[in-house]
Specification:
The protein is α+β, with helices and mostly antiparallel strands. It folds into 4 domains: 85 residues, Beta Barrel (conserved putative lor/sdh protein from methanococcus maripaludis s2 fold), CATH 2.40.420.20; 97 residues, Elongation Factor Tu (Ef-tu), domain 3 (Beta Barrel), CATH 2.40.30; 64 residues, RNA polymerase II/Efflux pump adaptor protein, barrel-sandwich hybrid domain (OB fold (Dihydrolipoamide Acetyltransferase, E2P)); 74 residues, Helix Hairpins (Orthogonal Bundle), CATH 1.10.287. The strands form 4 sheets. Strands 3, 5, 8, 10, 11, 12, 13 and 14 form an 8-stranded antiparallel beta sheet that branches. Strands 1, 16, 17, 18, 21 and 22 form a 6-stranded mixed beta sheet that branches. It is elongated. Helix 3 packs antiparallel against helix 4. It is built from 5 helices and 22 strands. InterPro entries: MdtA-like_b-barrel, MdtA-like_BSH, MdtA-like_C, MdtA-like_HH, RND_pump_MFP.
Length: 372
């Protein structure tokens, strides 16, 4: 009898353990809703844009060379200096060239004296021929002497100009505003036309950026522009190698008229102001072309877009906090936003974070994204 009571007690205890209490069911039913982050579908200005890899190219870049031979007397700059057009860079020994100018000047003065004498002789002969004192041949000879003297003056004047030009070449100046590189010569060096580049001068402000555009993209843009779907102008922005955006916008000033062989691309060039020399010749940059006209579109953060075999979809949180799977038509993406052509209305909330914790039909605890 006692054993029967013990068995009954054991069975009762087992049933209590095996069958959950009503309190346990209530606790499971009251489990907290998954926490998610949402953002509203919003109308915003998302202009069409395209990215390309570009290269910074100086508008002007020349090697400064010596045009006459001589020993270098002065170097009037510090490497890396910014200089203006006409700045004196080098001075070559000029004694020989000054002497040549003075010598030719003396020859010109002698030729002018000879001409004056020939003129006097000609005039005297012309007066005498009227009285038959001299022969016509004497007058002809006198005229020839005047012309010869005048020709000597013309020749010597040309020689003087050439000598003065050579003298001016002893002062080597900057042909335009720019930044100087490293000098290859120092004071005392013998320089001349065969010495090679003395220093390189590069103009950095303004500066160009060249980038290739595929012919497919170029032709599509041209056709859309002809149809009036997009403007003919574009804002040009740069992303620098350190990840920062260049503060000034550029202007397209050249589009190649031929396609590059082997790459099927067209070279496009944009000009940028560069007063602080942030853009250096040869730097690789990221170029973004953006439409100038405003384009008001419906968009959601790009991370809200999910995809499966049927296409793109978003998880929408309704006013009752329940989740709905919504198919959408994504037209394009720009600046981290997905442009929605169909499937959403302005103000509807889509899940941007925590989508892996939800399924259609369940209630969620939705928090608005920061800045949303």
């Amino acid at each position: 009898m006692r054993g029967s009571r013990i068995l009954a007690a054991a069975l009762s205890a087992g049933l209590l353990v095996a069958i959950p209490s009503q309190t346990a069911f209530a606790q499971q039913a009251q489990a907290p809703a998954p926490a998610v982050v949402v953002a509203p579908a919003a109308i915003m200005d998302l202009r069409e844009s395209a990215d390309f890899t570009g290269k910074v190219v100086a508008i002007q870049r020349v090697d400064i060379r010596a045009r006459v031979s001589g020993f270098l007397e002065k170097v009037n700059f510090t490497e890396g200096d910014k200089v203006t057009a006409g700045t004196l860079l080098y001075e070559v020994e000029d004694g020989t060239y000054r002497a040549a100018v003075q010598e030719i000047q003396g020859s010109i003065e002698a030729a002018e004296a000879a001409r004056d004498l020939a003129v006097l002789e000609r005039d005297r002969a012309q007066r005498l021929i009227s009285s038959n004192t001299v022969a016509q041949a004497t007058v002809d000879t006198a005229n020839a002497q005047v012309k010869k003297a005048e020709a000597d003056i013309v020749r010597l004047t040309g020689s003087k100009q050439a000598a003065e030009l050579n003298l001016s070449y002893t002062r080597i100046v900057a042909p335009f505003d720019g930044v100087l590189g490293l000098t290859s010569v120092d004071v005392g060096a013998l320089v001349g036309p065969d010495s090679g580049a003395l220093v390189t001068l590069t103009r950095l402000d303004p500066i160009n950026v060249e980038f290739p555009v595929s012919t497919a993209i170029f032709l599509e843009y041209r056709q859309r522009a002809l149809r009036g779907e997009v403007g003919r102008d574009a804002n040009v922005e740069l992303l620098l190698p350190d990840g920062t955006t260049y503060p000034k916008k550029g202007t397209i000033n050249f589009v190649s008229s031929n396609v590059a062989a082997g790459t099927d691309t067209i070279t496009v060039r944009a000009e940028f102001p560069n007063p602080d020399a942030l853009l250096l010749d040869g730097t690789l940059v990221r170029v973004t072309l953006e439409a100038t006209d405003k384009q008001e579109v419906l968009a959601v953060p790009q991370q809200a877009i999910q995809r499966d075999q049927q296409g793109a979809f978003v998880m929408v949180v309704g006013d009752d906090s329940k989740v709905e799977l919504r198919r959408v038509d994504v037209q394009r993406t720009a600046r981290g936003q997905a442009v929605i052509a169909k499937g959403l209305k302005e103000g509807e909330r889509v899940i941007t974070d925590g989508v892996g914790k939800v399924r259609p039909g369940i209630a969620v605890d939705a928090a608005l994204a920061t800045g949303g």
